[in-house]
Specification:
The chain is α+β, with helices and mostly antiparallel strands and about 650 residues long. About 35% of the residues lie in helices and about 15% in strands. Strand 1, helix 3 and strand 2 (about 60-65) form a beta-alpha-beta unit.
Length: about 650
Amino acid sequence: MSTPMLLDPRLPDGPVATVWQRCRETLPLISPSRKQGLRILVVGSGLAGAAAAASLAEQGYRVQVLTYHDSPRRAHSVAAQGGINAARNYANDGDSVERLFRDTVKGGDFRAREAGCHRLAEISGAIIDQCVAQGVPFAREYGGTLANRSFGGALVSRTFYARGQTGQQLLYGAYQAMLRQVAAGRVELLCRRDMLDLVVHDGVARGVVCRHQISGALEVLSADAVLLATGGYSNVFYLSTNALKSNATAIWQAHRRGACFANPCFTQIHPTCIPSGDVHQSKLTLMSESLRNDGRIWLPLQPGDDRPPAAIPAAERDYFLERQYPSYGNLVPRDLASRRARELCLEGRGVGPGGRSVYLDLAEAIARDGTAPIEARYGNLLEMYERITGDDPRTTPMRIYPAPHYTMGGLWVDYHLMSTVPGLFVLGEANFSEHGANRLGASALMQALADGYFIAPATVTGWLAGRAIGGPLPADHPACREALAAVQARMEVLRRTGGSQPVDVFHRSLGHLMIDACGISRRADRLTAALDELEALRRRFLAEVCIPKEDGVLDGELAKALRLEDFFGLADLMLRDALARQESCGAHFREEHQTPDGEALRDDDRFAHIAAWEHRPGRTPLRHSEPLLYQSVTPGPRSYG
């Protein structure tokens, strides 16, 4: 029998409210002169990666930043729309660090570490100060103070925003800070590189193997510490709100090299997305959750009512979220809003093609405030919707439907953001985060910047200070040669398949399988059957996929095949994790475990823990757990009524 792995979160003792302060004050430091001789490799150039690279280089480290984009500005953080949370109480409505902390713990359905949630709330205000100093153009009130709006899961206005382009503006701020270090010679940007493996020597992460997307050449990059900030894995569902290139290769290959994967089944379905248009669509478009501040969500009371929405009087409309959750109304957390919309559509009450939509209606807000103020808050979102659908949301309600969006699961990390592979730090959405089983809206950007600007610069230094570093490994080191050979062998296997089907055929099939078995709703018998179906699909992929011969071009099919192969492995782990967690919590809704009124039914006696999976080559992965202990918040019913 395998021995359970000890997952030590390395949490200081004492009150949760002072854990981060005590942790930071006890971390050892490194002199500026010694930092200049240390190299750090950051994989990913989004908010977490760019912020970490800029901050670490500012301290004096030599930093290499690896990104598969042609420019770091194309990182998927640029697509975030609605805003970033911070406990500043600018709206004078009772917000505080303590309230944001409690909202985060409750929003995650009591499946996140208390100390991590509190640290996130503590740091939130400093993030806003940092971004304002960088020139991020947050929306402001007439008097010049920063404006706030509300998001799901909160009864206060704590979300700072830049119209519907908040992620873009925050990324530009971090990118400019990083470029300052590029100009200073402390950051080296390596664009168009795909990380394909992790180099581990003596049990410590020492570098990566990457592929140059244009030349096809394999490169080994070595460093004294490796930081993964490569985002989430929602593209396992094929159709998601993520960018087409978003993938799981970096975290999956790190998992295969010894990094435990935590809570892989915790995946969030966003309630406000534009429904898919046809079977060949390649991605979905997000409409910011911020629209739920002013938009009312409804469906016709009578199934099959195909009248234009303007012809349906208010008495014949069902504002179902307001009816079911009178306190929070349209601002309930995402998992609840998505599940309720899906249930009603499955009952035959949906609108639009196939009955796969609900209405998000701005008419009352426009009548109350006027068109100009609504456009000032959401202008680019309204324009985006009109361009895609042809309907003007100022006069016709938006049609929206839930879609895969954010992944709360990721590589397990301790309180210092270090994985179970020493020297491998994981930041942002790539780690299993502080969001538990459901992320509150506008907290993703907050977590990414907290990890990059404030946490990693302290904890990476603390880890390096206690080590005798011999410098980066030479390219001909046995550990580098072994990782390089493993990547070459993997690529050769795919090139020899000789099939006739393009990669997207199999990725689309994988997406259908996963959204059906492991999407908004899960069931034991379906999860079990899906494991067999997944293995059959994987075998078909390896036998029938077509990888064109190298001809000096970008070789995009090979890149997609490598990513899809990793998605197959991750999908298997997601199904196993969903099957093992015999409860409902947050975005993980097991139909066998629900209350009489259809709400999630937690099992705190058996599942108040973080599940962390250990990879075992050729064998079934092994599930470990880290208990979740609460001293400031008492787990209770997650009520938003």
